[in-house]
């Protein structure tokens, strides 16, 4: 699911089912946090974007930090669902195929969800938001752990050299997460092409000689 797949930000004050309204708020907050940053966005801004009162927004989220945490949790949940779908039809005993599917799905999702990527990057790499960042770090670690588990299986199967799987996974995800900074969707290479080339180069140095 990309941001384009999320509820359209219809600006009206009429009643909306609770879950749909919450999804609308999360989508609006993601867009505004990406555009203006955490400190540059107020709850009033989010409420106005949704066509609702600030008091109504408080019904769903007690404060801005709670809203930011919900945005992060939502984006990570979406990413994990994308990974679930990508791995669903690949046998557990095919770790190299699963690694490629994991990385391709991650790259495609992050490239399509650039606003969510910007918010995540600002949270994890800046100090202007989420004083209790430890509350969302486990979500990132869970995601990274899934790739690390596939790398461990590839090492055990003799398809990769016996190196620290945590370091390998962080290396791979570092360039996956950097791709939206420069990749142009309208360019000659799709994000899958880019990811495949990076992964080929990375894994070439990790295969047994």
TrEMBL record:
Ranges of the DNA-binding region feature: 42-61
Domain of life where this protein originates: Bacteria
Keywords tagged on the record: DNA-binding, Transcription, Transcription regulation
Matching SUPFAM superfamilies: Homeodomain-like, Tetracyclin repressor-like, C-terminal domain
An example Gene Ontology molecular-function term: transcription cis-regulatory region binding
Pfam families according to UniProt: TetR_C_24, TetR_N
Region: Disordered, residue numbers: 1-21
Coiled-coil parts of chain: none
All residue ranges annotated as the HTH tetR-type domain in the record: 19-79
Protein name listed in UniProt: Transcriptional regulator, TetR family
Lineage, highest ranks first: Bacteria, Pseudomonadati, Pseudomonadota, Alphaproteobacteria, Rhodobacterales
């Amino acid at each position: 699911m990309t941001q384009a797949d999320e509820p359209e930000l219809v600006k009206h004050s009429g009643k909306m089912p609770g879950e749909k309204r919450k999804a609308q708020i999360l989508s609006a907050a993601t867009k505004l946090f990406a555009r203006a940053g955490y400190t540059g966005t107020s709850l009033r801004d989010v409420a106005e974007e949704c066509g609702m009162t600030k008091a109504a927004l408080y019904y769903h989220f007690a404060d801005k930090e709670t809203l930011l945490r919900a945005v992060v949790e939502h984006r990570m949940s979406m990413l994990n669902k994308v990974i679930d779908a990508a791995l669903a039809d690949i046998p557990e005993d095919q770790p190299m195929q699963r690694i490629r599917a994991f990385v391709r799905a991650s790259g495609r999702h992050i490239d399509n969800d650039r606003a969510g990527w910007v918010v995540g990057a600002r949270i994890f790499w800046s100090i202007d938001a989420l004083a209790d960042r430890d509350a969302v770090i486990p979500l990132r670690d869970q995601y990274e752990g899934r790739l690390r588990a596939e790398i461990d299986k590839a090492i055990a199967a003799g398809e990769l050299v016996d190196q620290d799987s945590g370091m390998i996974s962080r290396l791979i995800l570092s360039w996956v997460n950097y791709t939206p900074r420069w990749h142009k969707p309208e360019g000659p290479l799709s994000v899958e092409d880019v990811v495949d080339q990076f992964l080929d180069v990375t894994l070439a140095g990790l295969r047994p000689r």
